[in-house]
Amino acid sequence: MNSNVVLEAKDIYKSFTDGKSTVDVIKGLSLQVHQGEFVSIVGSSGSGKSTLLHILGGLDRPSQGIVNLNGQRFDSLGEAERGFLRNQNLGFVYQFHHLLPEFTALENVAMPLMLRKDAEFKKVKERAEYLLNRVGLSHRLTHKPGELSGGERQRVALARALVTQPKLMLADEPTGNLDRKTAMTIFELLRDLRHELNMAMLIVTHDEQLAKSADKVLHMQDGVWVTEKT
Ligand SMILES: Nc1ncnc2c1ncn2[C@@H]1O[C@H](COP(=O)(O)OP(=O)(O)O)[C@@H](O)[C@H]1O
Ligand SMILES: [Mg+2]
């Protein structure tokens, strides 16, 4: 694999079977994301974007095909090793923030680092505070998710995804649940942080402005790539 490829997927298929019926959701998709590159995936609801993103992030297994993250194949690893590979290389952002309600913003952001065996509490706290400050939330460190606005929660989720300095951020409609103005702030933060941290981003989005600012836009329809219709 070319050394500046962060993520490579080859000929991915995914089917779901429940009892009698089988649904073929991903039907032979390949892609590469290079260091520092921003790739967006657009496609109508139900086309298989979230399913693909889960497979690319090693959260689900493909029915067929290979996913290689930073030189390691997910299918060659056990569950713990997969978790380690994700923690070392990936940051995840979802449409709904998925923050832990009983923890503060600071604790939520620190979590991915605290999960590491060699975590040093003081350094982790400093790093989490830095990221929260960076997304403009230094005045909300001890607030719990329920005490934050939608945009603030998404900024906390962004800080959490970036606290480990991932090589690649995977985001599933990160602005999908926000009003236009708030979406713009998230959009600008993503752009600035990508350059600052020199990370690659793979973002599933309906947000045309966000999609178009990518280095590469992939259009998905019924589990395959299509060329954009005009
Ligand atoms: N766990 C599952 N079991 C069965 N079908 C699923 C499962 N997950 C997703 N699907 C189906 O796969 C299709 C694509 O879903 P999804 O990846 O969520 O699409 P998108 O994110 O593009 O809206 C949908 O028809 C959905 O019902
Ligand atoms: Mg989806």
From TrEMBL:
One GO MF term attached to the UniProt entry: ATP hydrolysis activity
Protein name listed in UniProt: Lipoprotein-releasing system ATP-binding protein LolD
Entry's localization field: Cell inner membrane
Enzyme class, first EC level, given as a word: translocase
EC number of this enzyme: 7.6.2.-
Main location class: membrane
Keyword RNA-binding attributed: no
Function: Part of the ABC transporter complex LolCDE involved in the translocation of mature outer membrane-directed lipoproteins, from the inner membrane to the periplasmic chaperone, LolA. Responsible for the formation of the LolA-lipoprotein complex in an ATP-dependent manner.
Organism: Acinetobacter defluvii
ABC transporter domain boundaries: 7-230
NCBIfam families: LolD_lipo_ex
InterPro entries tied to this protein: AAA+_ATPase, ABC_transporter-like_ATP-bd, ABC_transporter-like_CS, LolD_lipo_ATP-bd, MacB-like_ATP-bd, P-loop_NTPase
Subunit structure as annotated in this protein's UniProt entry: The complex is composed of two ATP-binding proteins (LolD) and two transmembrane proteins (LolC and LolE).
GO cellular component entries: plasma membrane
Keyword Lipoprotein: yes
Membrane topology reported for the UniProt record: Peripheral membrane protein
GO biological process: lipoprotein localization to outer membrane; protein localization to outer membrane
Family: Belongs to the ABC transporter superfamily. Lipoprotein translocase (TC 3.A.1.125) family.
Keywords: ATP-binding, Cell inner membrane, Cell membrane, Lipoprotein, Membrane, Nucleotide-binding, Translocase, Transport
